[in-house]
Amino acid sequence: MRTFETLPALKFALLFVAGILSGSVFFISPFYSLPFILLLIVFSVFLFFRKTNDNLFLFPIALLIFASGFVKANFDFYISPGDSVKYFSDTGKDRDYKLTGIISESPVHDSARIRFIIEAEKISFNNKDYNVSGNIAVYIHPDIKLDEMKFPPDLKYGDRISMYGRLSVPFAQKNPGGFDYRKYLEIHNIYKVFFVKGYDNIEVISTENLPFIYQKIILPAREFSNKNIDRMIGGDEGAFLKGLVTGDRSSITKEMKEKFVNAGVMHLIAVSGLNVAYVILFATILFSIVRFNYTAKFIGITILLCFYVLFTGNPASIIRASLMGILFMFAFVIQRKHIFYNLASFSAILILMFDSKYIYDAGFILSYSAVFSIALFYKKFDELFIKRIEKKNFKGKKILMSLFIIIFTTLAAQIGTLPLISAYFGKISIISYIANLLIIPLSNISLIIGFLQVLIAGYSDFIAFLFANANSLLLTIQLKIIDYTSSIEYAFFYFKFTLFLTVIYFSVIFILFSGKMTILFRIILSAVIIILTILFSQNDNLNLKVAFLDVGQGDCSVITTPGKYNIVVDIGPKSRTGSGSEYVLLPYLRYSNTEEIDLLILTHLHSDHISGLDYILPRIKIKKVIIPGSNDSKQKSYLLKLFNQYNVPHETVTAGSKIILSDSTKLFFLYPPDINFEGEETEHISNLVMKVIYGNLDILYTADSDIDVENVLSHYYKDFLRSDILKVPHHGSKSSSSVSFLLNVLPEVSVISCGANNRFNHPSELVLNRLEKIKSRVFRTDRDGALIFESDGNILRKIY
Questions:
Q1: For residue range 233-270, what is the model confidence (pLDDT) as tens digits?
Q2: Does 23 lie in the same domain as 158?
Q3: Is 548 found in the same domain as 531?
Q4: Alpha-carbon span 265 to 259, nearest angstrom
């Protein structure tokens, strides 16, 4: 293919990326890999001077490029300086570290905490100081008892501070469908998190310790821009504009982000290549006014783009667009013809040579996917539609062509990014195309006005306010459109592309856009591939699946029967930043393609079992709810109000109730008895105890039952308590799991749901010893993460 022969940068990029992907997974010691690269270089030079066959010469060159990517990834992903915080041990139980370092960005304040990144310098404990290097994500939470009447500390970028707190590795993905926070931070070269409780544990040692360009230019400019937008616009409109202009999304609420995702316009609140285009346009006009020659313009624009990259926090999309802009201008300076694919590929190579971890950065992937997709598919649309319009003469031709350019550019970008957006957000927005056509032109105008507002604010507040007022109205209109389009019924649906489906999708796309086959043949071939994919993707699982999700210090379990009947038992706790429903349960249900909950069972009404109900009710259909019928509390009244608000049928059950789902699947409620337990402290003695039977498999859910409840159960049910899986009572508390009760149950598997380093010291060593003595296999969510078991009614298997 002649076209591919003229794209050396693209070929280099493909080999280099393949090497990076391989090197990020497999590690080979530099003791072996570096001599191998040296040998390849010598061999390639030898073949070059021998003027041997081109194909023979190209093979070692291709292998050298691949090996270079492999070694680069090995160094970036696996090798760090000896004093890196990556290698420093986590804080032990009941012990704090003293961390000293420099705040590298403006701290973000919200109602629950202060968070920022610190360049670590020293860690101290046991009267010893250890010099360290690397970035740490810091979270400062107020001490509710001590800090109620105190203002948060006035921390700024460049402050050298010392803090007492707990150092730990970031949480990895502990539940299917959950967010891998550890991987996210590692991509950004952050390997540890540090938790501080109480404002008195922080001390500012000195100020203005960052390099001059950051301390005096970059960060002050960003802070001025954000404060100016907050002061003149504020609210959701201001948060939206900050995302457009500076890339700061810290003020955007979770609800607002969700609307942007549902409408398919999430890319708008991230600085993009369009920002760079406006910077180049502004600089070109400015330098033309002062009569710079082209070389001087090139140097000036390059400096300005470098500033803007640092100003926006180095996002991949801005780096990509800036590099492509610089390379494009440089081609004119040296009077060389440029090829788009080479420019894009070379910019990617430069970014990955700087840090190969960008290969997993969402912004990097989406940015290059959109760029290459536009380059590939817009050309086809141009040939089919726009060029035909060009040949005709009629009134309004230019307007129609401009409209078509916007329409087909948007469509071309979405073709390439659809599977990736689906993979990241677990949704496909049906309304996305229309929303983008409406919003993109308006957001471009807002972006230009936002730039002008910030630039003019340094000279005239009055004129800046005029721009801000006009923009505020425009931003409000955009948010109204997003709010409306995201709330339309069937505006989006939940679907996550797998790697297999992504390959199938792009195969079909390239077949449809291929010019070497007839249209009819392309359509038939694509239809056959889609039908076969659907047929082979059918999953007729005839086993029962039970998942114990890691929601921290709380309970949440999901049972899926062979008939696809979905039962959720408790929904977990709530923290300052969200609930188990939001971060664990709902993502798991989406991951497992569960569209509705047939039965929600709330074993009792403590917050670590029912929090986040107000979040999940409007987001997934719940056909029926069961709660214990023996306690009348304020919490129960609140729940009943929620059920009525969302028209969710509910009922109370007591001992003796049962639900027969099929001949092989039955639910028996063993507790509480049909009596009224009064008071707020009766939840543990009035909670639901349930036994699930599927064939010969028995699962016993005990909620937070204490020893008194266990004695009642043992007295009345005896051998009926015998189970294969025991959800250990009360998170493994010493107030539960009595010897007599465990001897009645004799579980093959015991599951303890508890949070890491919880303040209750769950599970108790006493309980763990008892379970060991009855030879039960113990699994803990704090250590093992989510636990998923599957059974055909006879054999029990752990599958996650």
A1: 989 999 999 988 888 888 888 888 889 889 888 887 77
A2: no
A3: no
A4: 9
The DSSP code sequence of 636-697 is HHHHHHHHHHTT--EEEE-TT-EEE-SSSEEEEEEE--SSPBPSTT-GGGT--EEEEEETTE
Of 529, 527, 576, 570, the residue nearest 551 (C-alpha): 570
Q: Where are the alpha helices (DSSP H) in 198-333?
A: 212, 219-232, 235-245, 254-263, 273-289, 294-311, 316-333
> Domain range spanning residue 38?
2-78
As a whole number of angstroms, the distance between CA 97 and CA 194 comes to: 9
Q: Which sign does the torsion angle of CA 223, 229, 232, 237 carry?
A: negative
Contact 252, 269 (CB under 8 A): yes
The whole-model pTM stands at 0.84
Q: Which of 10, 44, 78 corresponds to the end of one domain?
A: 78
What's the pLDDT score for residue 375? 86
Reduced DSSP (H G I as helix, E B as strand, rest coil) percent helix, strand, coil of the chain, to 5? 50, 20, 30
- Contacting residues for 480 by C-beta, under 8 A, at least 6 apart: none
Record the tokens describing residue 92, joined without a space.
């032990």
Q: What amino acid occupies position 560? A: T
Q: Which residues contact 47 (CB under 8 A, 6 or more apart)?
A: 56, 57, 60
Are 663 and 734 within one domain? yes
CB contact burial 558-582 (16+ within 10 A = b; e otherwise): bbbbbeebbbbbbbbbbbeeebbbb
Cis previous bond, 672, omega within 30: yes
Token pair belonging to 415: 């073709």
